[in-house]
Amino acid sequence: xxxxxxxxxxxxxxxxxxxxxxxRIFGRGPVAVPAVQDVSVTVAPGMLVxxxxxxxxxxxxxxxxxxxxxxxxxxxxxxxxxxxxxTGRAGVVGLVFQGPSLVPALDVLENVTLPLLLAxxxxxxxxRRARTALERLNVHGLAAKLPExxxxxxxxxxxxxxxxxSRPRLILADEPTGQLDHETGAHVIEVLLETAAxxxxxxxxxxxxxxxxxxxxxxxxxxxxxxxxGDRTC
Length: 234
Prior knowledge:
- By secondary structure, the protein is an alpha/beta fold.
- The chain contains six helices and ten strands.
- Helix 2 crosses helix 3 (123-136) and helix 2 (108-118) runs parallel beside helix 4.
- The chain starts with a strand and ends with a strand.
C-alpha cells in the first residue's frame, strides 16, 4: 500500500468524508510548513478510527480538513454521504477541539445549547438534549458555571457533551482525553463509542494513549504530515 493511502472503506455515496491526495501547507516560500501531505482516506458510517502519531505530525490538521474548517492547499475533501457539502448542514459533523473551545460569556448549559439552536432545534428540545449530554459526561452539576469557573478537564468534557448533543453523523475528537485522568478519560471514550454506535456515526479520535487506541477497530498513524500506516484490526 502506498504511503498516504489508507483504503479502509470504499468511496461511494454513503461515505461521510473522502480525502483525495489532500495536502495543507501553511505559509509560503522558504517558511512554508507542509502540515499534511498527499493523504487519501475514506470514512464510512460506523467506522471507529484511532489516529496516532507524534506531536506535529499533522493529526489535528487532518481532522480540521475533514471537518471543513481548513481548506486543502491541493487535493480535495468531499462529503458524499452528507449531501456533498457541509454548507447549510449544521450539526452533521461534530468536532471536539484539543484546546479551549467554550464561549467565555456563556454558561455551560448555554454553551451546549447554542449549536442546537443555531441548527434549528426548538428551545425546549435543545435544553433537554443539552442536559442529557451533560449528565452522560458527569458535568450536569456545572450547568450554571461559566467556563472560567471550571477546570480544563471539566471544560473538555463539556466540549464533548456539546458535540454529542447535536447527534452528528461524523464525530471528530482531537485528543479528547488529553486533559483527563485515566478513569475520566476512559468514561469519555466509552460515551463517544456508545454514541457513535447508537447513531451509526463514524468516530475518528486522535490520541497519544495506546490504551485509548486499542478501543478502536481501525488504526491510522501519521508522521511528518503523511499517513504512514493503516491497519484494519477487526
